[in-house]
Amino acid sequence: MEFAAFADRAAEMEAEPADLETVTLVAELFAETGDELDTVARFVQGRVFPAHDGTKLDIGPSLCYAALAKAAGTNVSVADIEDRLAEVGEIGAVAETLDLGGQQGLSAFGAGGGDTLIVSEVDDQLRSLAAAEGSGSTDTKLDTLFGLFNRADDLEARFLARLVLGEMRIGVGEGTVRDAIADGFEVPVEAVARAIQVSNDCGLVAETAREDGKAGLEDVHLQVGRPVKAMLAQAGTAVDALDEWERAAVETKFDGARVQVHHDGETTRLFSRNLEDVTDSLPEVVESVDQQLDVPAILDGEVVAVDEAGEPLPFQEVLRRFRRKHDVAATRESVAVELHAFDCLHANGDDLLDTSLVERHDRLCGLLSTGVSELVLTDDADAIAEFEAEALDDGHEGIMLKNPDSSYTPGNRGKNWLKRKPDVETLDLVVTGAEWGEGRRANLLGTFLLSARTPDGYETLGKVATGITDEELAALHDRLEPYVRSESGTEVDIEPAVVFEVGYEEIQHSPTYSSGYALRFPRFVGVREDKSPDDADSLERVERLANA
Ligand code: AMP
Questions:
Q1: Would you call 276 helix, strand, or coil by DSSP?
Q2: Residue 108 needs a FRET pair 20 to 30 A away by CA distance; which of 77, 242, 297, 336 works?
Q3: Does the C-beta of 233 come closer than 6 Å to ligand 1?
Q4: What CATH number corresponds to the domain at position 304?
């Protein structure tokens, strides 16, 4: 399929406000697509890699703008692009007005191929770009991107720029793709939803639905090495739990980072909640699992940092280990981590998503002799309170209350898992802006604008500058700088990418911020490296906390 044909369809979707009509447009696009269905099903969602693949394109706005400027010719600078962006607010709309392709003499440089951009070729090039590493990789990426933009017409440029930055803005998410697969290939939507949950790969599911229909979808199974989304929890209390269920399964809520353990019978791989492969940063977890497991299994659990006496350390400590690529051995000396496995999705050939929590926990106990979290079944609120007091006493974060009869629903934040934390809850908010510091902090970003997630984007609710040490500030500056979209005076607009955990004294109604709420005395607690903006707290939760 020509990328231009894809871009035409994407423009139609963007212009279509009604969800149902958008589903029809996506279904039509799928029907027109041949071999590239897999790629097209990802591209419409602004994805180059399937959801289970944690690989990131790792192209920040500045690299994208540089490539656009280069393709736009000598009269257009990166600063011009940033100025236009500040006016129109969105890179696709800027890219399409740039009259790219003026650099014909240079078109052999970077992209190669004929003049017409083909979907599969765009996919291949973006993937090669994600794989570029080491010295010179930034130049390689710039050349590749330039090569693509240089061959793009206006509409192609709009969607290529958005694809590169991972935001298509055409109102197509996983739900739309699910419905379009069901409509377009005449298969039950439940079968499609199920196959997406199990495979975490819309492209694969689209192809399976087209080639093998409902039977094919039912034959999609969990696969060791292909992580699924983590099941999530809502806030709740013992009373909520015992009102809903006859008895509750009570567990410690460990203050660490989520991991999904994939063991193929010989080797182990570990995935973060964002489905990034974090195997190499946690060797002692791998060793422990390798020693204990000799059959294929997929487990869910929490990795916690512990001190020399084995007591749990605060969550921030585990992050020092979690995504570390260098000095793993040295950091391992200073911060030890251990796994608390609490669920089992697959054991020795059996997919267990549909079996009950109690049965899955039994299978887990049969697989691991150490590192399994204790699960207590009770219908007694006092027993739950006692369990909670002990968990807090032992330095844990709180407790989890789970429905003993519930299945495992990947990606779902349902009522079957309740989390109970006693403290005033912190919020996990997305950084969407910043201000330059003052005095000795003048060359660093200093005050950070925080936003909560809404179904349509982000709404601001406060700025945080306290609770940050000089050392942390320098690290935050480096972490956020690649996401700077534009600057005006001392204020900086930042692409949503980084999630801060923040404490506060109160949430007030206030006209100061776009959400209609403001945090009183916000204080920085840490960066939630394990969360993406999609996992940040919603405005709905902020409203609930404000009204509580
Ligand atoms: P939160 O991050 O505050 O939304 O709390 C939910 C998280 O608690 C999960 O995503 C897990 O990472 C973590 N967690 C800790 N202990 C457990 C447990 N026993 N069962 C499930 N999740 C747990």
A1: coil
A2: 77
A3: yes
A4: 3.30.470.30
9 belongs to a structural domain? no
Are 387 and 439 found together in one domain? Answer: no
Q: Characterize 205-240 residue by residue with b for buried, 16 or more Cβ atoms within 10 angstroms of its Cβ, and e for exposed.
A: bbbbbbeeebebbeebebbbebbbbbbbbeebebeb
Q: What is the pTM assigned to this prediction?
A: 0.78
Q: What is the CATH number of the domain that holds 470?
A: 2.40.50.140
The number of the ligand 1 atom at minimal distance from the alpha carbon of 402 is: 20
Q: pLDDT digits over 119-128, tens only? A: 999 999 999 9
293 with 437, same domain: the answer is no
∠ Cα 233 337 55 (to 5°): 65
Q: 336 C-alpha to center of ligand 1: Å? A: 20
Q: Which residue, 401, 419, 437, sits at the end of a domain?
A: 419
Q: Is 60 a domain residue?
A: no
- Render pLDDT for 410-437 as a digit per residue (tens, 0 to 9): 998 889 999 987 656 789 999 999 999 8
How many domains does the chain contain in total? Answer: 2
Measured from the CB, is residue 253 less than 6 Å from ligand 1? yes
Is the CB of residue 373 below 6 angstroms from any atom belonging to ligand 1? yes
CB neighbour list of residue 74: distance below 8 Å, 6 or more residues apart: none
DSSP structural state of residue 444: S
Residues 434 and 415 in one domain: no
Residue 180 lies in a domain: no
* Together in a domain, 541 and 430: yes
Alpha carbons 59 and 149: distance in angstroms, whole number: 14
The finding on whether 523 has its CB within 6 A of some atom of ligand 1 is no
Ligand 1 pocket test target in 316, 357, 400 with most atoms within 8 Å of CB: 400
Q: Catalytic: 463?
A: no
State residue 539's pLDDT score.
Answer: 96
Q: Of 229, 253, 463, 531, which is the active-site residue?
A: 253
In the chain, pLDDT over 90 holds for what percent of residues?
73
Q: Between the CA of residue 467 and those of 194, 317, 434, 462, what are the distances in Å?
A: 44, 17, 16, 15
**Residue 125, helix vs strand vs coil:** helix
Is ligand 1 within 6 A of the CB of residue 501? no
**456 and 407 within one domain:** no
Report the C-alpha gap between 511 and 374 in whole angstroms: 47
Q: Of the residues 419, 453, 480, which one is the last residue of a structural domain?
A: 419
Query: Domain residues for 252?
Result: 235-419
How much distance in Å is there from the Cα of 226 to the middle of ligand 1?
21
- Which helix (H) or strand (E) covers residue 116, if one does? none
Indicate whether 259 and 385 sit together in one domain.
yes
User: Both 353 and 409 in a single domain?
Assistant: yes
